[in-house]
Specification:
elongated, 286 residues, mainly alpha
Length: 286
């Protein structure tokens, strides 16, 4: 009698999913984790007072005692960068959330509202696209005054049109797909089709876009602050640090370089994770 042995766990092996993260996204995740800890528990990374003035340590270059140097008031710049993470990330996350909320309303309404509504919203988005994001944000901040709230609103409204057009395209593509037509043919209600098929599939690619938008929003907000339209000093918000240090750029380069490196690190890390997540989502849907 011949006994045939079957390979064990063949089905499971055929569905193995690699959990390995490439070095680039892993490093990006570590960088973002550092800044998240800095935003939640800044005293853990920098226990000193970010507003403590030491007139005997004015404009000292980076050293073991002051890794990022000191500012014009003798305050430790590393401590101020760490403690300014909360406001900076709050601006980035808040502006991205506001932009996505406005974009979802406009994009879905345009994609599903018919020819007339689609034409009106599309023309309005084209008008908003005629204004550069920075110029639109500058006008808003100039009218309502510089603060964290106005920066969030200004950057959010400035970046919303791009997301809205992206969502509109996704909704139009999903609406005419085969599985949506099949759902209609099976007698599913319009609301059920929208809830179970159109909205989830149209929004899924935007998960990666959100991570990209956070870094972009921080860069835009820092640009406003550098022009004097951000959070007022002595706030340790990164854009405010850039604004405060520009008068000393020829004497103390670290006042611009160190906060700028923090902004670049967050933006690059968020972009790297966003690209990695987008590739994973595209691979899962393929």
């Amino acid at each position: 009698m011949t006994i045939t042995t079957l390979p064990r766990r063949q089905g499971r092996q055929g569905r193995q999913i690699s959990l390995k993260i490439p070095p680039g996204p892993a490093l990006a995740a570590a960088v973002l984790l550092f800044f998240i800890v800095a935003a939640i528990l800044p005293q853990l990374l920098a226990p000193a007072d970010p507003f403590a003035i030491d007139l005997n340590a004015v404009l000292q270059p980076p050293s073991w005692q002051h890794p990022f140097g000191t500012d014009q008031s003798g305050r430790d710049l590393y401590t101020r960068v760490v403690h300014g993470t909360r406001e900076s990330l709050l601006i980035g996350l808040g502006a991205t959330a506001l932009a996505m909320a406005v974009a979802v309303v406009l994009g879905v309404s345009s994609g599903l509202g018919g020819r007339v509504l689609d034409g009106l919203i599309s023309r309005g988005l084209e008008v908003l696209f005629a204004f550069p994001v920075l110029l639109l944000a500058m006008l808003f901040v100039t009218v309502y005054g510089p603060s964290v709230t106005t920066q969030v609103i200004a950057v959010g409204l400035g970046t919303a049109p791009g997301y809205a057009r992206m969502i509109r395209g996704q909704v139009l593509a999903v609406r005419t797909s085969g599985y949506v037509e099949a759902a209609h043919a099976l007698g599913h209600s319009r609301w059920e089709v929208l809830r179970r098929h159109v909205f989830p599939n149209a929004m899924r690619p935007l998960v990666a876009v959100v991570t990209l938008g956070v870094g972009q929003s921080i860069v835009w907000a820092s640009g406003l602050a550098f022009l004097g339209l951000g959070v007022a000093p002595p706030s340790p918000e990164w854009g405010a640090l850039l604004d405060a240090g520009r008068m000393f750029i020829t004497r103390a380069w670290w006042l611009e370089v160190m906060p700028g490196l923090a902004i670049v690190a967050v933006a690059l890390a968020a972009t790297s994770l966003g690209n990695h997540l987008q590739k994973k989502l595209e691979g899962a849907s393929a």
